[in-house]
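Thanks for the sequence, V.! I ran Transporter right away. Repeating your input here for the record:
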Amino acid sequence: MRKLLLAGAVLLAAAPALSEPGLPDDAAVVAALDAHPSVQAAMARTGAARAQARALARGSHEFTFTGSYINRSVDREGSFDEFDAQLTRPIRLPGKARLDREIGTFGVAAAENRAEDARHQAALLLAQSWWDWLGAAAEARVDRQAAENYAKLLEAVRRRVAVRDAAQLDADQAAAALGAAQVAAEQSAGREALARARLASQFPALPLGDVPPPVPMPKLPDRGIEALGRLVIKHSHEIAAADAEAQQAGATASRARADRIADPSLGVRLFSERGGAERGAGVLFSMPLGGGHRRALADQADAEASAARADAMAVRFAVTEVAETDMTEARFRYAAWQRARDGLNAQIAALQKLREGHKAGEIDLSDELLGERQVHDAFRVEAHARTEAMRALTRLRIDSHSIWIGQDED
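Predicted structure:
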């Protein structure tokens, strides 16, 4: 385990130079997020919302032209060409155009925030897949190095058996330990390949090297976990989208109430009868007389507005829960990694004593092999705890918009 111990000592002593080490390049992440289908779909829906807002601002009130031509035949008088033409257009009553513009504006705001939230969710997925890959690779490195160390230990034991300085049982025990280490190395290598394949499938635009970077040492944010937790709520696009949808529903309810008085239609009419003997022009006016149907639609819109307001409150509760969860997980994952590091240091010190005792003939090889396995396990536990700490801190930074999806505003 000498190389493994040396590598672990260097890693434990290292200090990160960057605020968020171990992550891919920011420009590469932005390009990968832009290319993700969920983000592209959300951007397309934003374009649709803008088009709908323009349509609402213009209104659906269009000119309607109606015309007719008739050839009339009258006994003992002859035939006559007659025509009729009229042009009508509905007119929005005062206040309705303003409400339509509000509905469109709130719809665009909701769609834009949904698009930003889609980017947010894609960023969380990328971070999750990224740390799955790096964590599996870190454990695979530990297992490969352990297998190499067991192989060297077995070779040394066999040389001692050849000169009758050790029993064949010692060689058998060392070979068994090597076999178990090789199985663990194969399994962890498979998990690394699987994690990389999943990451590449979800984000094909993200460049991935053949060798992943090592999982860095976790570092708590300079401004503190609580400050980032507050930013999770402050910068939540999910809350902003829900609020915009609630406002849109409220404007839609007001529009439905205003629509209980229907919009009138105005127009002009021209006609010619009996071959031009009778001609005329006039003004047309029509207006639907609303009843129970329009009243029911207004009641429906009021209920939907109330539901949208309740949904917005539920979203705020959910985001608050996310913020509290992020802060809690960041704290305990970081503390767990520190305990794992302390445990690894203790196991390293114990193994050094076991090795010295075995060389002096005071400790059996089985005891040293047990110590080697315990150090190997301690390295794997530390690597896993380090990965989970980095995963939790990265999620907190993404949720607070400190990285990838827009810098936080102070």
